[in-house]
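ARCHIVE RECORD
Type: protein–small molecule complex
Small molecule: heme C
Source of inputs: curated submission
Record status: active
Notes field left blank by submitter.
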Amino acid sequence: MPNLQKRWMRLLMALFAVAFYGVTGFFAQPRAQEVGCTVEGCHADLLAKRFVHPVARDDCGSCHESSGAPHPGGEGKEFSLLAEGGDLCLTCHEVISEEGSVHPPAQDGECLTCHDPHSSEVRGLLTQPLPDLCAMCHDGYQQPEGDSGSVHGVITSGKSCSSCHRPHDSSLEKLLIKEPPDLCLSCHTDPVKNGERTLEPVGKLLKTSQFVHPALEMSGCSTCHVPHVSEYPYLLTGAFPGGFYGKPKPESYELCFGCHDSALLETKNDPDATQFRASNRNLHFVHVMADKSRSCVACHDMHASDVPHLLRQFVWFGRWRMPLKVVQTDVGGACTPGCHQKLQYKR
Ligand code: HEC
Ligand code: HEC
Ligand code: HEC
Ligand code: HEC
Ligand code: HEC
Ligand code: HEC
Ligand code: HEC
Ligand code: HEC
Ligand code: HEC
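STRUCTURE (tokenized, with ligand):
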């Protein structure tokens, strides 16, 4: 073919393509922007937030259908939803597939309590950020109970409740993402920064120490800690002091006496109450039942240690990492801590 004819053929084909697109484009679904549902003055606000539901951007018609009444001006009856409640969402999303536990509001199709169908300022199209979203139905997970109580810092920061729970379903109980104690150790194996303090790397201690508190092997962390809030310090399940000093009475250490005999504290002179004694003189009594009651944590690690009887190598006294220098013998022991010179006890 001569060159001129070739050019004419190309031009004809291009014209045909444009015409074809025009016809099909006319019959294809109009996009939200094209029909102008979201132009200024109409429903612009619906898609104006930071995170937009992709289907709402693409096609209002995936959820709304016209009832034929003129729009606008049909008194709100000109559109209906393609399906009611959660059924609408479930046509595209399968959110419940696990059977360990299912969250009732997700099961009951209350998707819109937690999600906005169009757009939201919160990731995941959520109607509110966590933990407030969850607090609509679950009270009391954010505030410590009482003056000396504690709240788990993860709840008020970062992923909040989602650090431990899935929102719809889980193969595990209580919508958990991992079974405790692995759940707890996923964060507490290494030291956790908490403002000025650095928390003990409990998981590392458990792995590397010679002696582990049998309480941990009995039922993990939950014997002594709750996951959310507690009326006691350190998320503890029972009364225990929040620092180096407690009160000189057994009730101040109730947590321990769920399993241990409080006799180890109570009597001043008793050859049977404890091994921590000089002859009959109960040295637990001397240290703990004195005016300044030194808490068990002054000498024992609650989780694990390389020294027998879970004794510590050192203890934090304010910012001082105070060594204890404990030596054990068959009939007693000796100690050279920062608080006093070397003292020995013999049973
Ligand atoms: C994923 C499904 C879905 C898509 C897509 C969708 N909507 Fe909706 N829309 C809903 C649902 C569900 C409601 C009812 C909300 C309620 O009851 O709180 C609603 C309500 C509305 C309302 C009532 C006012 C309001 O905010 O509750 C308007 C107006 C509206 N949609 C317009 C639109 C427009 C315009 C588009 C396209 C830009 C669109 N919708 C896309 C699901 C959708
Ligand atoms: C017509 C299909 C369709 C319907 C109906 C639909 N969605 Fe979606 N949705 C999508 C698509 C596509 C995405 C983007 C891909 C993805 O994340 O799965 C999405 C994403 C999402 C996301 C994740 C957004 C994000 O930022 O991570 C949420 C939450 C969501 N939809 C909730 C809903 C809810 C609630 C309803 C019912 C009101 C609903 N969807 C109805 C198709 C649909
Ligand atoms: C109790 C509140 C709640 C309810 C009820 C709920 N969701 Fe969610 N949903 C969430 C949270 C929280 C996320 C995680 C958001 C994030 O972190 O990005 C989520 C995430 C999603 C996602 C993103 C992908 C995924 O599976 O993680 C989709 C899709 C979704 N939800 C759909 C639904 C549908 C459909 C329903 C109703 C059957 C529903 N949701 C009910 C709280 C809820
Ligand atoms: C619309 C109300 C509502 C919202 C919002 C809500 N929940 Fe629930 N949730 C319930 C109900 C109802 C139950 C079942 C009764 C109960 O245990 O309190 C439940 C139970 C639970 C359970 C126990 C499940 C089991 O198998 O025992 C967990 C965990 C949970 N919700 C976590 C959350 C988290 C995390 C959020 C925020 C993402 C949240 N809930 C938001 C209503 C809600
Ligand atoms: C997603 C990470 C994460 C998981 C999972 C986690 N924690 Fe924590 N935990 C932290 C952080 C961060 C802190 C420090 C912030 C705070 O409590 O103020 C902390 C603090 C603590 C504290 C000290 C509280 C105080 O008042 O000083 C205890 C005790 C604790 N966690 C126990 C647990 C137990 C038990 C589990 C399992 C049920 C667990 N943690 C799971 C991150 C986590
Ligand atoms: C550090 C992990 C962790 C975080 C963060 C967390 N939970 Fe839990 N949650 C658990 C564990 C573990 C259980 C199971 C406790 C049990 O069986 O005694 C649980 C149980 C629950 C239950 C069932 C009722 C109960 O107390 O046993 C609800 C409801 C619940 N959590 C809601 C929430 C809400 C709401 C948030 C956020 C405000 C949240 N959780 C944050 C670990 C966590
Ligand atoms: C026998 C009871 C008991 C058990 C079981 C227990 N703890 Fe503790 N835990 C305590 C006591 C008491 C404290 C507070 C005194 C202290 O600082 O040692 C504490 C403190 C903590 C702290 C804060 C440490 C710091 O440096 O302030 C973390 C984190 C912690 N525990 C995590 C865990 C984890 C994770 C488990 C399970 C693997 C667990 N605990 C099991 C009694 C226990
Ligand atoms: C769930 C039960 C339980 C709780 C609660 C508990 N313990 Fe224990 N503890 C044990 C068991 C079991 C042993 C091993 C047998 C023994 O020595 O009494 C043990 C051993 C010890 C030892 C080592 C004794 C030795 O001679 O080797 C010390 C120290 C100790 N616990 C301190 C505490 C303190 C302090 C608390 C309170 C914060 C506490 N325990 C809470 C069960 C528990
Ligand atoms: C001043 C340091 C110190 C304090 C404070 C202390 N202990 Fe001890 N405890 C020891 C020493 C040292 C031993 C080991 C005695 C031995 O066998 O030589 C011991 C032994 C134990 C034993 C093993 C059984 C026994 O009585 O010999 C238990 C259980 C125990 N302590 C629990 C506690 C509890 C609970 C508290 C807090 C109420 C506490 N201790 C406070 C130093 C202390």
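CURATOR ANNOTATION: Residues 14-34 have pLDDT under 50 and may be disordered.
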